């Protein structure tokens, strides 16, 4: 009997340890950004990568033209080059590298996109070129720096497993496209549908005191601020507690309220990966938060400075017990990078 108890105990311990390791392995791990001189690059967990031109470190922001080169992970996928301007652009936009016209496309909604053989031609020329011009008809829109572009694109080749193959942009080799491994499947997040119904009732005075205490935001909370309440289920309510504000960032701590109005209890909302502005081992902190009941999604968007050319964002989906990361973007350099790079994606079902 004693031996049986020991065996059962060991079995339970192994099961718990295995479960813990699986849970740890399942935690989202967004990709990291790398910067090479005037280019920054990152890839997500599905091996889709994007590189973006930055303003030179000593340049002055003056209506910079944003250039992004992205590429899907599939072996036959070709680079896509996007050109965006703060000024209104319509009609033909052309790319000139080292004085040679490489490609042209028609701009719509202030953006021109170069795909297929044009995208590949631009990528090849960028990796070997010295100067780049973006022209709108005869007018010069901008001269993005190519310093660091070759290193960034070599990094892209490596991250997508293209180095040494004919599909690489910089690190070309003799191997065929079939040497490029297929991308990993995106993780699945099962969405809990938010039921229809009346908006949750406001917190009573005693409830507000409890929620403020749980959020740790007593020093930042003022009487003129109202927590945001959003229905999650018949018994659960998302409470966004105001927790400080700056010129363009408004912080809040998300809580989950349960129980009847007037007698609700509160606890910090759970996340499979803490939002980017959360302190280590501290409460989750959202910035410029928003909740959309139709998609059960909670978003956080933190700007590094007012013009929005750096920062980070996360989108989570409620699964009935916690918020699970479905998308993360980042731009670590405050140098004109408007197109924040995606570092994590998940597929939401249903």
UniProtKB/TrEMBL annotation:
InterPro entries linked to this entry: DUF1176 (IPR009560)
A matching Pfam family: DUF1176
Secretion signal, residue range per the UniProt entry: 1-25
Keyword set, alphabetical order: Signal
Highest taxon above the source species: Bacteria
Name of the protein described by the UniProt record: DUF1176 domain-containing protein
Organism per entry: Sphingobium algorifonticola
């Amino acid at each position: 009997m004693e031996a049986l108890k020991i065996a059962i105990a060991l079995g339970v311990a192994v099961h718990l340890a295995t479960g813990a390791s699986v849970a740890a392995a399942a935690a989202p791990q967004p990709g990291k950004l790398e910067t090479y001189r005037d280019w920054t690059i990152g890839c997500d967990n599905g091996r889709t990568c994007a590189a973006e031109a930055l303003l030179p470190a000593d340049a002055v922001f003056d209506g910079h033209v944003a250039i992004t080169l992205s590429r899907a992970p599939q072996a036959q996928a070709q680079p896509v080059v996007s050109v965006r301007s703060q000024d209104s652009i319509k009609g033909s936009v052309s790319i000139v590298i080292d004085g040679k016209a490489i490609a042209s496309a028609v701009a719509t909604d202030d953006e021109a996109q170069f795909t297929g053989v044009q995208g590949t031609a631009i990528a090849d020329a960028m990796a070997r070129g010295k100067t780049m011009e973006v022209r709108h008809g005869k007018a010069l829109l901008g001269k993005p720096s190519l310093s660091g572009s070759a290193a960034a694109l070599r990094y892209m080749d490596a991250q997508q497993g293209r180095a040494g193959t004919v599909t690489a942009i910089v690190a070309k080799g003799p191997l065929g496209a079939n040497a490029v491994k297929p991308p990993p499947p995106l993780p699945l997040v099962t969405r809990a549908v938010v039921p229809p119904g009346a908006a949750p009732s406001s917190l009573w005075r005693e409830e507000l005191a409890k929620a403020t205490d749980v959020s740790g935001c007593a020093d930042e909370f003022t009487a003129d601020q109202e927590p945001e309440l959003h229905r999650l289920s018949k018994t659960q309510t998302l409470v966004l507690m105001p927790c400080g504000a700056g010129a363009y960032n408004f912080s809040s701590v998300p809580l989950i309220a349960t129980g009847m109005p007037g007698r609700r209890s509160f606890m910090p909302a759970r996340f499979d990966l803490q939002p980017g502005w959360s302190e280590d081992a501290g409460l989750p902190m959202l910035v410029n938060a928003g909740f959309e009941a139709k998609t059960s999604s909670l978003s956080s968007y933190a700007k590094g400075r007012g013009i929005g050319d750096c920062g980070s964002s996360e989108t989570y989906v409620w699964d009935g017990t916690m918020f699970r990361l479905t998308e993360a973007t980042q731009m670590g350099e405050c140098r004109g990078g408007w197109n924040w790079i995606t570092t994590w994606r998940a597929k939401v079902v249903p």
